[in-house]
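Comment thread on ticket #2218

A.B. wrote:
> Attaching the input chain for the structure job we discussed in standup.
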Amino acid sequence: MHEAMFYSKKISGKVVCELCPHRCVLSDGELGICRGRKNISGKLYSLNYGKTVAINEDPMEKKPLYHFYPGEKILSLAANNCNFDCKYCQNYSISQLESRTFDITPELVLAICREKKIKPVAFTYTEPFVWYDFIYDTSLVLKSENISVVLITNGYVNQKPLEMLLPYISAMNIDLKSASDVFYRKICSGTLAPVKKTILASLKKCHVEITNLLVTGENDSTAEITALVDFLASIDSEIPIHFSRYFPTYEFMSPPTSPKTMMEAYEIARKKLH
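C.D. wrote:
> Ran it. Output below, let me know if you need it in another format.
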């Protein structure tokens, strides 16, 4: 078992996980919201350390990253965990449900990179920040071999762990789900402000691109798209944004995002973002 980073103990035997803004207060034997951390006899352990649900070789553009080594291959790994509960999750079978995992070590990740002659590694598909301990250790190994580390993330992390990891991160795609805190609370079981903080902090340290999945009837109005674009333009008009099309899955059965809405989002964004 691997004792987790970023937690505090209470006299009662409870622990407070300080990795993400949920700050789960856990009694002995209790799991955090992400299902990756557990209080065992008054200590917090990372249950997902060294366990991956996927190992794939992807095109860089699939992340999506279009301005970070375009045309290159990237090694993708994922944990079986997430600290959000998005009702429309496009990867819910590995983020929200228990799935088969495979044992892996930081040294094995490096060995795969060497064998496949792949330089960048992405922690992706599910939420990398709830796999923090393993990613931190792996990043130290990869960075020493000049292998780039990429996070595809919802950005829901506290500032202290973020700042500790950022020196080892070369690029991030951050999923800005909406410009509305109501959307985050209602649909994702989270809040907007920490995600904005992650974007601002990460822009100072590494390459950042943004993804916005347009969910029919939820965050796809002209007003919502405009508010999101205005926020990005206010901090850096050079930030690339990817609008993604939603398809009905998990708990949402609304129709897929219309091509008309996708084009409208593009037209709104291109007026204020380069």
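A.B. wrote:
> Thanks. Noting for the ticket: Residues 222-235 form the longest helix (14 residues).
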